[in-house]
Structure formats: C-alpha cells, structure tokens
Amino acid sequence: MRLILAILIALGLTGPVHADEHELWPEVPKATGEPHPEGNEYWRKNHPTLLLHDRDLALREGDRDIQASIGTCFTCHAVKDEATGEPVSFEDPRNFCRVCHDFVAVQVDCFSCHRSTPADPKSLAIRQMAGPDEPDSIAAYLERLKALEAAGEAAPTEASQ
Amino acid sequence: MERTIYRELKATPAVWLVALLLLAFIGAAGLAVLMIEEEGHIITGMNNQIVWGLPHVFAIFLIVAASGVLNVASISSVFGKKAYKPMARFSALLSITVLLGGLAILVLDLGRPDRLIVAMTRYNFTSIFAWNMLLYNGFFAIVGGYLVVQMMPGASKTLQKAAGVIAFTWRLILTTGTGSIFGWLVARPGYDAAIMAPMFIAMSFAFGLALFILVTLIIFRLDGRIFGDKLMRRMGSLLGVFAAAVLYFTIAQHLTNLYAQEHQGFERFILRDGGIYTTLFWVGHVLIGTLIPMALVFLRPSRGSTIWASILVILGGFAQLYVIVIGGQAYPLEIFPGYEVLEGFNEGVINSYNPTIYELALGLGGVALALLAAGIGAKVLRVLPTNLSDANYPTDG
Amino acid sequence: MSNRAELTRRDLLKSGAALATVTLAPGVTLMTFGGSDAEASAADAGKRWGLLIDAGKCDENCSDCVTACKTENKWGAQNEHATAENSSQWIRKVTLKDKNTGRKVSAPVMCQHCESPPCVDVCPTGASMKRADGIVLVDKHICIGCRYCMMACPFKARSFVHENVTDQSVNAPRGKGVVESCTLCVHRIDRGRIPACVEACEATGNSAILFGDLADPESPISKALEQYPSIALRADLELNPGVRYQNL
Q1: In the beta sheet, which residues pair with residue C172?
Q2: Residue B287 forms part of a structural domain
Q3: Choosing a second label site near C223 at 20 to 30 A (CA), which of A72, B68, C191, C247?
Q4: What is the residue-averaged pLDDT of chain A?
C-alpha cells in the first residue's frame, strides 16, 4: 500500500515539468524573431529528441533540411549582456539554455563543441543552398573548369613521372 | 598435501598503512585526471605525434599481466598441477583487480571519459578495440564466475575444471585481442605484424606470473604467512621459461623485420639509433627483462633468485612496452618513400615524447587501484591460502 | 509488513525495487515523444567527392589553402601554451626533395578520404565514419577521444583537440577531447559549394587543387585522372583514397 502510494507520488511529482508556468520556474529569456509554429510547449518537451535525431541526419546523411539545427537557434535565442550588448555564451548562467538546464539540473554536452552565441553573417550565408550564379557554387566552378578546358589551359603541367 | 584452509587477510596496522599509501597514489591519480579534464591533454606530454603515452604503457602492462595472473589458477584447474591449487582463488581475484586497474587508466585517459556509456553501448565490430571492450567485460564475468565456482562448497571437480578451461580460453582470446590492437595497424612500420598477438600472449605469461609472485609474497609477509622455498623455486623456473618465450618472440619479430628492406629504417631506429628506445630495448627489455632473470632462476635457483627475477621481469616488461607503444610512434610515418621532407608538419622526423607528472600519476594510480582492490578482496573474501610452506609441498604435482 | 526488528532479504528486495521504481518513474514519463520525419538525404551514394592535386602547379611558398581552411573551420587560433605538436592541423603543406634526383616539389596533404579508411575500421564506437558520398568524417557526438584512429591513419591526417575551444565556426563544431580532421568542407558541399582550399587555390591563379565527383566519368576530375598519370599516397596500402596527386 505504501509502495503504491510512493509510486503515485513520484509520478505526480513529474507534474511541474509538464505543467505550464509555475512560480518556481526560472525566468526564460524572451526570444526575438518568429516563434516556432508548433508552440513553446512542443519545443520545450521535444527539443532533446529533435536535436538528437536531426544531428544524426545532418552528420551521417548530409540532410541539412532539418527542423532542429543547433547552429541557428541562437539567431533568435541569444541573450545579450546589458553592459556590453554582446550575446553571452554557455559559460554564462544567463545563456538561454543555461537558464532552464541549470534549473532542472540536466547537463548538456552540446557546447563543448558547438558555439553558443549567434554566428557571423558570412558563416551563416554559407549555410544557404548555393545558387548557380554564386562564384563558390559547384555549378559555377564546373563552368569555369569547362571554360578553361575549352581555352586549352586545363591540361596539367607536363608529367615528369 | 593437506586440505587447503583459506583465511581472510587480518587488518593489522601494517596493512592499514599500506592501504593508506595506495590510497594516496590513487588520490594523486584522481587529481591528475581532474586537471586533465579541466585543462585538456595539453598539460600532458602526449600530443598529435605521440598519441598514446605513459598511461597507455602502464595500462597495457596491467591488462596483459592480468590475463597472465589468471594463469596460476589455470595451471591447477586446466593442467592439473596440485601445487598451484591453493593459489587459484587469489589468482582469479588478482587478475580481476589488475585488469580493473589497467582499464581505469585507459578510461580516465580518454578525451571524453564521460562518454564511457557510449563506448559500452555502441560497438563497431570491425574494430579490434571494440572487441577488446567486450572481451574485458566478459573477462570480469567469466573470472568472477570462476572464483564463485572455486569458492562454492558444492562445486564438483567437473564444474571447476570447466570453469577453469573457459577462463583460460577466454584469457588467451583477450590477450590475442590486446596484441592485435597493435598488430592490426597497417599504417605504422613498428606494428603491422601478426607476431604481435602471440608475443603478447608470451608477455602475459611472464608479466602475470612475476606480478603474482611479488604480490602474493608481499601480502603473505604482511599477514605473517609462509610462502615456501620449494614453491618459490618452482614458480621461479616457470618464470624463466616464460621469459625465454618472450625473448624468442622478440628475436623472431626483429629478425623478420630486419630481413625486409622496407622495415630496415624502423629496425635501425629501435636497435641502434633510437637513443632512449635503443637503451630500453637492449638494457631494459633484453638484458634486465629476459636474460638476467633466466640466468638467475636457471643457474642459481633459490628463493632470492625468484624474487629478483620477478622484479626484473616486471621492469623489463615496462621497458618492452615503452619501446613498443612509444617507440612505435616516435618513428615517423613513411608517407613519401624516396623523398626527403624539407618542410612540413613534423614529417619524417623522430617524434619526441616528454612524459609529465600527470601521466606518471595516472599510471601509478592504476597500479595502486589494482593492488588496493586485491587487498580489499583478500580482506573480505577467503581467498588467501594459509599453507604454502615446504611441508605442504606435494610430491606428485 | 512484519513486526520483526531485523531486516529480512525479502524486505530489502521489496524496498530496493520500490526505490528503483520511484527514481525511474519521472524519467520514464519524460521520454515518450517522437521526433521529426526523415527527409531525403543529401549525401548521394551515386557521387564520390575527391580532389586531384597537381604538385606541378603548387607554389612552394604559398600556403593559401592552409590559411583558408584555418579561417573557414577556425582551427588555427593558437593558445599561448600550445605547441605545434599539440595543435590541430587539418591540412599542411609539405615540400619534398627527391633523394636520388634532387628535384623539389610541394603539395598540400590532408585527410585522403580513403575508400577503405583504416580509421573507420578501428574506431571502437563507429564515430569515425565514411559517408555515402565518400567523405570520411568524425561523428564528434560519439567520439570518446581514444585516439586509436590517429594511430591507424597512415597520413597523420587526424588531430586531437588538447585544449578548451571557444568561438567555434558555426559550420565546424569542434571541442576538447575529440578527434578531428579535414571534412572536405562537407558543410559547403552539402549546400552545393566548393571546399575552402579549392576556392583559395583558384583565387591564387595556380588552381593546383581540382575538385569534383570521382564517380561521374564526365566530370573534369575523372577526365583528368583518365588522361594524365596520378598517384595515391601510400598506394601500397591499397586504400583507394579520394585525394590523388599528379607530378609528385
């Protein structure tokens, strides 16, 4: 009897994690930009699974068209330091991820390797699919090679082997 | 030969002092690991050229010795030698704790030891390293079971023999796997050799027996028990045979390598031009690790000879592993045969290795862990025989 | 429950099971959600990306490919107490002199993206992997930092990160305790762009690094390999690398 009671209480204690705003909850920093269409509740509950699943898709299969890319979270979820105006990194407890993860005492492994502040525009630009007119696209590169070959300059220097 | 009575180690002040000393070494290792976790491996002497260093030398020594320590038990259960039967329980226990110590060093030296659970759950079966992890875990289970069978009051002789044979077979596979970690590396001239596996088996016999003799002797001294001269002399001559086997495989390996033109560079490095590695090879491994112990136990068999031979085999073993593990990495990769490298990134140069206190602390901590765990096991379980004296020496095996 | 003062084995088992259930229950309820659907993968098994490096066009004094790689993937920033030996090196320039003829030649060396990579064979967790399109990568999520792949690589292509890393490139996450190497700029290739070293070499005017699809017989790289002699480094190991050299 006491056992059943203990289990019920334990299950009940999971309540606060599922419930909406609670007095004990930390103050989650406001994000900028468009909100996620699925809503905060969905993302709060599912972001670990989404991130874990999508990282394998991205890395092992090269699928970049994914929902949960950790590279772009901080475009909207950056927390700026009032004094300097610079976004704070994961080292700082005011970082977006730190606020909740410190509260629930769940360690995150991501930021020993991933950056935790917004990326610079040039690096972000590379993440867009290249149009054939962009000079660093494979298509444009192949065009240049074709042009060189046509002009008879593509042959390598005389082999001395 | 009378029926063996096993009794726990008594907790005397001397035993407590030794335990405290071992704890201090473990503590030092713990501190070293904390610092490496905090600052990164940059504080150690290991780098992108010498990837595996002193901790790995210690770890591989312990892992190889662990499987050899079990041999003492195998000699009684698999080969039926009665004189070794009383030592079988402690042999099984010590082999488990020595393997534990070696693995502790390996795991704590990982770049990401927090990902151990990943290593335990995701296996790439083309990797001999992954197979080794399975073999190590299996070793704990199988030798644990073997110890239980030995200590069970109702266990039949058949069951004991079966457990002994399974344990013996498993340890041979395990040590073959450990040797193959190096033997299966095609890239480096110092490693890519099938002989690595049997050589490691021979090494395990020698190191394991030497370690067992010394640890048992010390623990007996601490507890006031007698380790008879007859048994010591017998184990000493067995150690001599094992040391000879190690020497044989060393000779076979280097003679074969010397014959092949492509390995000449590496052989010249180890045998003549390698500085510390050459010294460790000839003086450490060959002289101290095999020739002198053999001379001692075969030409002047005695209690003292066995003890000295054991110490020297262990020292020589460390020297041999230092040459294998670090010497093999110090010699440069031959990426551009026929070319001299004018500029590059440490191309074609002998890589230098300067071990730091952190690596030494980690290595010694693993040894201390192995010994402390063995001591605790001997204190808690009835594994130490009370009568290894000459009066109890069997005349028929 | 009995009134006996002593704790029986049964009691211990019961309370142990209870404790375990109570501890695990909150966790079990948290982990019951699914993820996103899998979409078409971009790593095409029909392609094999590779490089053809013409050492004859490579300038001995130029290391723009190395600089470009450093800038792109941000592995070059030196910390005060780092030495050359414990810093990462994804790509390096080597200058060679033939021992018999005295001829000097220079070329960049990076991960050779072998077809049968020894690093992939030896990785205990499977972190060292080869993608369907031939690019060899380290899955840093599951790399445990054992460095066995570094022992196995014949080209010394892999580096271990010895120090804490900050301000990483968003396109090249890297951190302490894991192993890394040239990714063939997979983050660029997946978005239809050429690798940084290829771009930089083209910009110098030397165009010593040719990039393309080895699996396509009509691609410039395949045609060049068909027409002119080329070698693989450590060809004796029969690894069939995706990086080949001419005039070396």
Answers
A1: C169
A2: yes
A3: C191
A4: 86
